[in-house]
Design goal:
8 strands; 5-stranded mixed sheet; 3-stranded antiparallel sheet; alpha/beta
């Protein structure tokens, strides 16, 4: 397991501002910074020492050209067809790196569940609620924070849905 620093300065400035605005200043003290990037769910789980399912992936898709954020546990994959049906969209596709940065203000691998540059619809897979605590990116590929999943979904403005791929 990598060593980490827990410092308020570890938060991305936009994310730190969002925490303040949401009344979540105490989260700043729980942010963990790792010397090695935690861009993927597997890297984050290994660094933290938790299960892959306890990692929150903040994924941006485009539904009929409109960005939507999907929060998914790290052990699961998003079923794009289920997202399309949930949104009533004609087409849904994964957003490219430029669209992710434009929408959220963060690079892929560091996108937090809230504190974005733009107001975006948020879908949160119900599977996140299976855990007592989940870990999400804090605005950089080197930082994560823990939070109770129902609170995370609420603060992200998420709608609980079932959009994970089903095991065959």
């Amino acid at each position: 397991m990598s060593t980490s620093d827990t410092t308020a300065s570890a938060a991305h400035p936009r994310f730190a501002k969002a925490l303040r605005e949401l009344g979540l200043d105490e989260i700043k003290g729980r942010i963990r910074r790792f010397p090695d990037a935690t861009r993927t769910a597997a890297e984050a789980a290994a660094a933290i020492g938790c299960g892959l399912g306890e990692i929150v992936k903040s994924l941006v898709f485009e539904a009929d050209g409109v960005p939507v954020l999907v929060l998914m546990d790290g052990a699961s994959r998003v079923d794009v067809e289920r997202v399309r049906r949930e949104l009533g969209a004609a087409a849904v596709k994964r957003a490219d790196a430029e669209a992710v940065r434009e929408t959220t203000g963060y690079a892929i691998g560091g996108v937090p569940p809230f504190g974005h540059r733009t107001k975006t619809r948020v879908l949160a897979d119900r599977g996140l609620l299976a855990h007592a605590v989940v870990w999400a990116a804090a605005g950089t590929p080197h930082t994560v924070f823990p939070m109770e999943p129902a609170s995370l979904v609420t603060h992200a403005g998420g709608t609980l849905v079932d959009v994970r791929e089903r095991k065959a």
